[in-house]
Automatic annotation (TrEMBL):
It holds the Pfam family HipA_C. It comes from Dechloromonas hankyongensis. Signal peptide: none annotated. Gene3D superfamilies: 1.10.1070.20. Residues 28-120 form the HipA N-terminal subdomain domain. Residues 169-376 form the HipA-like C-terminal domain. Belongs to the HipA Ser/Thr kinase family. This is HipA domain-containing protein. Keywords: Kinase, Transferase.
Length: 412
């Protein structure tokens, strides 16, 4: 535990400390996090050393010697992505049982392996996080699954097993755990309560997206006694280093955008993306493919927290690999993110309506749509080859191949 000084027994206080962990062996103090009780939120004030030799964590946190105040019930800027997701909050409430449950506690108890390169400590002199111990491995999957079942059912969890459930990842309410496979960190996601084998379907969907020219996080289907889990390789880790990352929700909000949409995210890539080799242009076009793919496989859970950007210290953005891509199978007919002139409507015409904002001329956008259609048209065979059962494919077909979507594919 050479780089970590485990925090002493936690006592509620109104301030904690934010650290920069790009090189975990050399943590750097970023500043002070304070519970603003009148707003029930968390503020940030940069430390003098960070003001002198640091960088703005997000556009709404410029290097200024002021206290950045939150919106009500919120956390300022990039720090918002350091909080646990809904499953992580549930784990903290059930296993850690903090003496107080403000946003400050959720930030702290998210632990050392939270999303991105930020850390939260009880000390401003040494990095002292909530540490859960070594990550479990593939051999612990059945035990992890049982622990998840216990948490979901409100059953006791043995004290010596609590360390296996680290709550600090980016995602949603789906049960998950962190584990190590071949020296790399992966997020292991379970499918409790889903109407189909969602983890296996996610693996199939992600690999299908790759066929459509989309950069995706690596996935592995992990067999369980019943059904599967899916392991998703973390894109915010690179060997021993941690990468600064922002959800699209935080990045768009920091940019002052009122609308959470694909076109807005494309324009943010144009403005803040990597210029060398015109990478930002290719990433804008890939974002267009992601939008079209989500429409055609009925992934209507494509909200702005299910998209992420990797950020370098110069403030340049790159699309993180796609994650949380799978059919919602709800046939809603609209996306969570704005698509085009017809707002969130799940149509290819709507996707094409603002193609220019993705750096695409009409004929180029049509070619991109056809590229995605060519991949999605073979979804049933691909899913079957990935092991998805016939019953699940039949269920998913009621959404993916319903006239609203199938007609758009066939008629394009």
């Amino acid at each position: 535990m050479s780089r970590l000084a485990e925090a002493p027994s936690y006592q509620p206080a109104d301030s904690l400390y934010l650290w920069w962990l790009a090189d975990p062996a050399a943590p750097r103090l970023v500043g002070t996090l304070t519970l603003v009780k009148s707003l029930r939120g968390i503020s940030l004030r940069y430390a003098p050393a960070w003001l002198a030799q640091g960088f703005a964590l997000s556009e709404d946190l410029p290097l200024r010697d002021i206290e950045f105040l939150p919106e009500r019930d919120g956390i300022v800027g990039a720090v918002d992505d350091a909080r646990p997701d809904r499953w992580g909050e549930r784990v903290i409430r059930y296993l850690d049982k903090p003496p107080r449950l403000s946003l400050l506690e959720y930030l702290f108890f998210a632990g050392d392996e939270r999303f991105g390169a930020l850390g939260v400590s009880t000390s401003d002199r040494a990095y002292q996080p909530r540490w859960h111990g070594p990550l479990p491995s593939l051999g612990d999957v059945d035990e992890l699954h049982e622990l998840v079942r216990r948490v979901m059912n409100g059953e006791p969890v043995p004290a010596d097993q609590k360390r296996l459930l680290a709550p600090g990842t980016l995602g949603g309410a789906r049960p998950k755990a962190l584990l190590e496979i071949d020296g790399r960190q992966w997020v292991l996601k379970f499918g409790e309560g889903d109407p189909f084998d969602a983890p296996l379907v996610e693996h199939a969907s992600m690999t299908l997206a790759a066929r459509a020219g989309i950069a995706v996080a690596a996935t592995r289907a992990v067999p369980l006694a019943q059904g599967h889990a899916v392991a998703v390789q973390r894109f915010d880790r690179d060997g021993g280093r941690r990468l600064h990352a922002l959800s699209a929700h935080v990045a768009l909000r920091a940019a002052g955008e009122k609308e959470m949409g694909y076109p807005e995210l494309a324009l943010l890539l144009r403005r803040r993306g990597v210029v060398e080799g015109n990478l930002y242009l290719e990433q804008m076009r890939e974002l267009f493919r992601r939008m079209v793919f989500n429409i055609l496989i009925d992934n209507t859970d494509d909200h702005e927290k299910n998209h992420a950007l990797l950020v370098d210290t110069a403030g340049h953005y790159r699309l993180a690999p796609a994650f949380d891509v799978l059919p919602a199978a709800q046939a809603l007919g609209y996306q969570q993110m704005r698509v085009g002139l017809q707002a969130n409507d799940s149509t290819l015409d709507n996707a094409l309506s603002e193609a220019r904002l993705f750096g695409l001329k009409r004929d180029q956008a049509v070619a991109e749509v056809r590229r995605v259609i060519a991949a999605v048209a073979g979804w049933q065979a691909h899913f079957a080859a990935c092991g998805v059962g016939a019953g699940d494919i039949e269920l998913l077909a009621t959404a993916i191949d319903r006239p609203h979507l199938r007609g758009q594919r066939d008629g394009f």
